[in-house]
Amino acid sequence: MNDQDTIAQRQAAEPSQSGLGWLGYGAVLSALASALATFLILSGATPLLPTHNVVVWVFMLNGVLIALLIGIVAWQARKLVRERRAGAAAAGLHVRIVGLFSLVAVLPAILVAAVATVTLERGLDPWFTGALKDLMTNTVSIARSYRELQCRTLARETQLMAADLNRAKVLYDADRNLFREFLNSRATFLGFPLTMILEPDGTVVERFEAKKLEGVPMPSQADLEDASNKEALCLFQRSGNIFRSALKLDAHGGRVLYVAREVDPRAIEFPQVAEAGVAFYEALDQKKAGIQIAFASMFTLIALIVLLSAVWFGLNFANRLVAPIRRLIHATDQVATGNFYVQVPVKRGEGDLGHLGETFNKMTSELRRQHDGLTAASDLIDRRRRFTEAVLAGVSAGVIGVNARGLITIVNPSTEALLGTSREDLLGKPIAMVLPEVAPLVEEMSQGRQRLMQEQIHIARKGKERTINVRVTSEQTRSEKRDLVITLDDITDLVLAQRTSAWADVARRIAHEIKNPLTPIQLSAERIRRKYGKVITTDREVFDQCTDTIVRQVDDIKRMVDEFSSFARMPKPTIGNEDLAETIRQVIFMMKIAHPEIEFVDQVPPGPLVASFDRRLVSQALTNIVKNATEAITAVPETERGQGRIAVLLDNTHPDYLIIAVTDNGKGFPVEGRQRLLEPYMTTRDGGTGLGLPIVAKILEDHGGGMELADNPAGRGGQVRMWIPKTKHAESEEPSAASGRNETRRTSL
């Protein structure tokens, strides 16, 4: 309520908006009515004729009204300037509004007056220039000259025809028909529709009429007498369009050639029209100055009246507009500071501005209600968001949120670790680009109406292949565009453990079933060789070779059965505090002796590095890995092999694990199905049993560690990374805790 009191006080301090009251309205309306009357009188639209006295009285009345308007506008402007200097509230806005209205009123009035004056003067001046005056003065002469030109042309062609007829006098005397044809041809050639040869008394001797001409009179006796034998006589009437010509023929004894031709009617009529136009033009020239003065005066008076009226309306409108706007501005400032309880006082008679104030009050009330609701909802959403983030951060499976356009909106830390990509590089990217293996499942889910879809996929990131159980669920909405939640559960180690357990059971059964008949077979073969070896005399070599083969193959089978038994009954590690660095150095030393042609690089920290592990089993695992590395190098053709190199690195920088990396420049691991090499009986070498890497993985798993296969970062070859915990692994951890260990191994790498 304090804000309302403040606004009311400001309203009381506002300047008066009444202006000069009804005097201003009366002066403006009277001036506009006088301007309209002036226009109607000067344009001749009223019974009152625009005589000199009438025009003078009209102009005097307009002058008095203009002076009154100037006084009213000056009084309003003086009051506005005084308020501006006194620093009245919103005086700056008041001045700007008045200035804008005045500018909008002044510019069109001045522009219209200037354009009208210039247009009138430019519109009249060209008609009274010297060239146009000369043209109008010479119009009659030009018309007469045109008529004389037509006469001369007709006379010249008449003389040509007369000369031809004089030369054809012989033909006239010899053959009248042939002469008549000659007369017709010449008349046609020269364009005479009517041609006659007359006796001096007017009798027609010969007549050729190519075209019927209406209203062609016969020449009078005076015309025949005036005809000369040297120059043709041109005859024309004051109306019509027929020009005639008469010329005496010397060779025909004084006979007269009479011809007629149609011409443009203006050649006869235009001289009279031109004379009337010149007379009218001279009358306009005498009235030009008066017309210009009258119209310029009318434009000036009307422009001044309209200009001053518009300025007064602008001042009055600004006075009425400033007060409610001032209140709205102050209230808006209060709302901008966060005060949604402010209300604007509304006066009657403010029209749309009053309605705007009422709307503003409703808006602040609605904003206050919505603000309170949004604040409560925001707090609730914020609490739910923090809870959701905490839940997602603690979930071992990767969680990805995808919107209806296929863009990633949510990822949890497990997703970043699984994909090896930071949150910033995942958010906002299409799921089809980040995880193309899941794109078909997402597309099928988006197009169908299922709530849940599940599938097992394989992904390879940075040389690591993982088996992922994918679950795609959609939000419960009736809209066709639904957001999706993708859950990525890394089951690589679980699948491997299941397969290893299954293979161990298979190996145990195979060893049990095969081992029993092997000893009788071997003993029988040896007995046959001892008892019958001396008796057989023929093919003795074949006999010995067969018995030796049986004994040797039985030994090989026994060795494989022993490996099966070893894999099926891996001894439990005897954990003790041992020096891992010394264990690695001993393995490298033995392999150097066995393979002097290969360069071994020892990247083990100097001095002892004590950890909890079974020295015998870890040494066995490391020996197996280094042995596989030597075999991978020898598998490369000699032309491509170069210097074989095996590097063994012991990394002690991880907070929880000791990492052993064995890197070689051999043939490396296959890209597809790489992790399946850790399963029993999966091998890429000829003659391999496929149990070496599974045994190593089992040893490391029993120690609480793990291993992974990768490419050589420096080029050709492969890398095996193994890790064991720095502290003693809890033996109580059963396979039920395997998922936790799997997650730990994944994040450690």
Question: What would your notes on this structure say?
Answer:
It is a single chain. Among the domains are: 19-126 and 282-315, no CATH class; 147-263, Beta-Lactamase, CATH 3.30.450; 498-565; 572-725, Histidine kinase-like ATPase, C-terminal domain (Heat Shock Protein 90, 2-Layer Sandwich), CATH 3.30.565.10. Helix content is 58%, strand content 14%. It has 22 helices and 17 strands. A five-stranded antiparallel beta sheet has the order 2-1-5-4-3. A hairpin with a 5-residue loop joins strand 14 (645-651) and strand 15 (657-664).
CATH class assignment of the domain at 572-725: Alpha Beta
Shape: elongated
Main pleated sheet: 5 strands, antiparallel
Q: Per CATH, which architecture of the domain at 572-725?
A: 2-Layer Sandwich
**Cα-to-Cα separation, first versus last residue:** 65 Å
Strand order of the largest sheet: 2-1-5-4-3
Beta-strand proportion:
5-15%
Q: DSSP helix count?
A: 22
The stretches of 5 or more residues where confidence is low (pLDDT under 50) are 1-19, 731-749
Radius of gyration based on Cα positions? 61 Å
Helix content: 55-70%
Please count the beta strands (DSSP E, at least 2 residues each): 17
Helix/sheet category: alpha+beta
CATH topology value of the domain at 572-725: Heat Shock Protein 90
CATH homologous superfamily caption of the domain at 572-725 = Histidine kinase-like ATPase, C-terminal domain
Mean pLDDT: 75
